[in-house]
Amino acid sequence: ALLTLLIAVFSLLRINQIDGVVAAQNEIRTQQLERLYTAREALGQTGLAARNAYVFTDKADAMKELDILDEQKAIYLDALNKMTPLFKGNADFDKVSKGLLTMAEELKRPRQFREAEQMEEFGKFLVNECSPLRRQIVADIGTVVTSMQKVVDTKSAEADQAAKQSIIIIIAISAAALLLSIGLGIFISRSITCLLYTSPSPRDQRGS
After folding, report:
1. Residue 166, SS3?
2. Which of 13-22, 111-120, 186-195 has the lowest mean pLDDT?
3. Overall pTM surpassing 0.85 (yes/no)
4. Treating both helix axes as pointing N-terminal to C-terminal, what angle do 34-55 and 91-106 enclose, rounded to 10 degrees?
5. Residue 89 region, left (φ>0) first, then alpha (ψ -120 to 50), else beta?
6. pLDDT, tens digit (0-9, with 9 covering 90-100), for 81-117
7. What dihedral angle (degrees, nearest 10) is formed by the CA atoms of 70, 68, 32, 84?
8. What is each CA distance from 27 to 10, 20, 86, 130, 166, in whole angstroms?
């Protein structure tokens, strides 16, 4: 009974440990990685919208694209605000944050260029300033994603190792419990047998 209780307590502790590791994995995925992906995708959409605003000859269509640009910028800024406390002290993320905030300021210019019909300046801005900055930000996000994925992989390995160790230990304790039960059964059986052999028979008791 004691060994059974020990197995139950050990199993519960191990399950809690594994649950904690899995929860940490899920938090990294949902709170950090997915938001990084969201920011990267929205950043790409701002580039597409800015290019369309430059290419479209109809000004009304261009303005719609600039509205999309502003919406996508708001999405990545929201993701950035939610991520920032989670990446406190992370130098690689600081580069991402700085780049996204710089881009947010730069993305005010496409509307200014288009409204003023400064198409030559608009084109130069897209090629010489906007695109290089966007590529650098995407590269920086990739660095952070890679490092966080390594953390997730480490957590996965920890969970797998804990599960394997738990199985081995539970099997060992169960085997010990089985052997102890067998040994205890043999001991009790022999004790009863010895008691029967050593007890005086009823005839011997009458003779005495």
Report:
1. helix
2. 13-22
3. no
4. 30
5. left
6. 999 998 999 999 999 999 999 999 999 999 999 999 9
7. 0
8. 26, 10, 10, 33, 24
